[in-house]
User: Which sequence fits this backbone?
């Protein structure tokens, strides 16, 4: 039998079969290498690799912060033109460099440190102020982070923070620098201020229609409608999908029992104490208090040191020897003296707030919503995949909505800021700038790719129509043009009157008489520093005042009023040790200078350490994933 098999194996048919098998097994074994990595490495620092998903996540976080600062109209492309992607890349590289440097110096983290840091983070705490696992998972999901990514980042922070703390630790800034900065920022001005509201000037005569039209034409964009877009969208959000889940009451009750520890608040007692170094004095004090003498009287006459400990749980009482007597009283009152290394303590339990467990009725909706969101997360991914597959097959946005079992939402005539032509905002328009950013990057008639939103949801949109920016017809904005023209004429009148009044003051005229004659309001505010704006002064006026010299008279035409300011005095700051205000300002300035110095040292250290590590950045791959 074996001989027959050997003869068969020597034939050309068997050899072909062997070749086919070899190729099949070979391809099966290396298939992972033939397919592109779905999450490739885009940054390498030494032997540390950073994958594109982490860069994408960090960019999204930075973009959302930028939108919160400057407005939701910042698109992804605009942010990249502003260099946000480079900032994110530099930040990631610096983090990895410092993490490697800290590890090389012997710093390390462990599971206990990670658990403690997470438990103390308020972001992950529930209604009772303790760690909430569900809240933790929701925050990570909303941030676009896996738990392993978050723990890796947290571990790096726990390494980097002590390292940077040691690096920036240095003596306070030199006195000469503090004094120079103090002389500049604490310098004050004393002024005589005269002002008049534009509205107090007489209205100009009704202008001819040609004058109004000329004013309207001279304004380039003041009366323009912004570019508007008609948008159709499929929006998937965990909250929207969660509404479709009916959580049984039994499941809610079961979860309540699982989370019972989160809803328990321990007993708290409001406690004050008197501490004596003598046992007899402490005992006498307790007797006097129990006989009805007031706490204030006994505290002032007995020689004990009185302290308000405030509201405390049994576990929070320090030293712990005081916990049993403080919490052993059945009702508010005075405990027997307790000896500790600090002396003899007389405790007054002023109030008792008993332990409380939130009933199911108080947290039922919270639990039901939490359970529904948990279910919605898996369903969300499935529906997002259904949308993506439907669109990939060439089907319409409407077909994708049907596949996801959600309606197509329509937002007509929407500007980049989310407003319609009449200044309103369409109902249910997704919040934040990401949705509109994608909409205004998508061409007319085109459908965007499926995009993950900061809240953990997804959306895909189609731009049905683009309405180009254009000037509103004159007839439509005539009343606004008339109002603007009238204000401009009044502002010009105010400036002319202020210039004339300023000349009077420069010639030595009396301020009160000149103000009365010109019908300006006269006020002499107290002296002020350059970071102060005493009413009715504005920040722009204060800047102009500090740019002038003593004796100067300046004119500043503001948005709604005109000012004439005479600089009566330049007051150099006092640094006297007996001046509480001066010392407070000096303390604040030292803190600011120390903060700036620490930041500069940290940046210099990061740059120096970075030179010791090889850094490879695949900028083209990063741009592909970000765009």
Assistant:
């Amino acid at each position: 039998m074996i001989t027959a098999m050997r003869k068969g194996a020597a034939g050309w048919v068997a050899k072909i079969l062997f070749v086919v098998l070899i190729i099949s097994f070979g391809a099966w074994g290396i298939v992972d290498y033939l397919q592109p990595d779905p999450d490739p490495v885009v940054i390498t620092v030494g032997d540390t690799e950073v994958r594109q998903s982490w860069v994408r996540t960090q960019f999204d976080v930075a973009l959302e912060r930028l939108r919160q600062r400057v407005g939701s109209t910042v698109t992804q492309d605009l942010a990249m033109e502003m260099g946000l992607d480079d900032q994110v890349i530099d930040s990631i590289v610096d983090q990895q460099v410092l993490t490697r440097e800290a590890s090389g110096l012997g710093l390390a983290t462990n599971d206990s440190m990670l658990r403690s840091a997470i438990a103390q983070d308020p972001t992950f705490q529930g209604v009772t102020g303790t760690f909430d696992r569900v809240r933790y998972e929701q925050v990570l999901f909303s941030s676009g982070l896996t738990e392993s990514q978050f723990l890796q980042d947290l571990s790096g922070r726990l390494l980097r923070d002590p390292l940077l703390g040691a690096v920036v630790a240095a003596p306070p800034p030199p006195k000469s620098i503090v004094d120079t900065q103090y002389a500049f920022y604490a310098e004050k001005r004393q002024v005589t201020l005269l002002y008049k509201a534009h509205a107090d000037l007489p209205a100009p005569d009704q202008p001819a229609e040609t004058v109004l039209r000329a004013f309207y034409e001279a304004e380039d964009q003041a009366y323009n409608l912004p570019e508007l877009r008609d948008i159709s969208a499929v929006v998937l959000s965990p909250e929207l999908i969660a509404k479709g889940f009916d959580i049984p009451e039994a499941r809610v009750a079961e979860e309540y029992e699982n989370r019972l520890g989160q809803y328990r608040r321990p007993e708290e007692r409001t406690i004050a104490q008197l501490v004596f170094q003598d046992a007899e004095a402490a005992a006498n004090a307790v007797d006097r208090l129990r006989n009805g003498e007031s706490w204030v009287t006994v505290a002032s006459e007995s020689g004990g040191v009185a302290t308000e400990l405030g509201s405390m749980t049994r576990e929070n009482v320090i030293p712990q020897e005081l916990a049993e007597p403080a919490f052993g009283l059945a009702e508010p009152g005075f405990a027997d003296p307790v000896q500790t290394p600090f002396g003899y303590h007389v405790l007054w339990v002023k109030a008792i707030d008993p332990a409380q467990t939130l009933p199911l009725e108080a947290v039922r909706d919270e639990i039901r919503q939490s359970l529904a969101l948990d279910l919605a997360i898996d369903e969300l991914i499935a529906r997002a995949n259904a949308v993506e597959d439907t669109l990939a097959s060439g089907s319409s946005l409407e077909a994708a909505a049907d596949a996801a079992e959600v309606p197509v939402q329509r937002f007509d005539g929407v500007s980049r800021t989310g407003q319609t032509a009449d200044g309103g905002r369409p109902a249910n328009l997704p919040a934040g700038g990401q949705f509109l950013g994608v909409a205004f990057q998508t061409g007319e008639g085109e459908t965007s790719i499926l995009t993950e939103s900061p809240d953990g949801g997804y959306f895909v949109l189609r731009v049905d129509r683009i309405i180009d920016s254009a000037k509103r017809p004159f007839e439509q904005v005539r009343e606004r043009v008339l109002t603007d023209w009238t204000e401009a004429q009044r502002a010009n009148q105010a400036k002319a009157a202020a210039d004339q009044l300023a000349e009077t003051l420069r010639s030595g005229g009396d301020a009160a008489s000149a103000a009365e004659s010109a019908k300006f309001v006269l006020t002499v505010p107290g002296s002020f520093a350059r970071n102060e704006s005493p009413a009715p002064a504005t920040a722009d006026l204060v800047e102009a005042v500090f740019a002038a010299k003593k004796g100067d008279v300046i004119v500043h035409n503001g948005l709604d009023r005109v000012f004439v300011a005479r600089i009566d005095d330049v007051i150099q700051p006092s640094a006297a040790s007996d001046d509480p205000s001066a010392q407070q300002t000096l303390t604040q300035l030292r803190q600011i200078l120390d903060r700036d110095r620490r930041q500069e040292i940290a940046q210099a250290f990061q740059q120096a350490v970075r030179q010791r590590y090889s850094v490879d950045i695949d900028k083209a791959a990063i741009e592909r994933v970000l765009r």
Notes: The first strand starts at residue 41 and ends at 45.
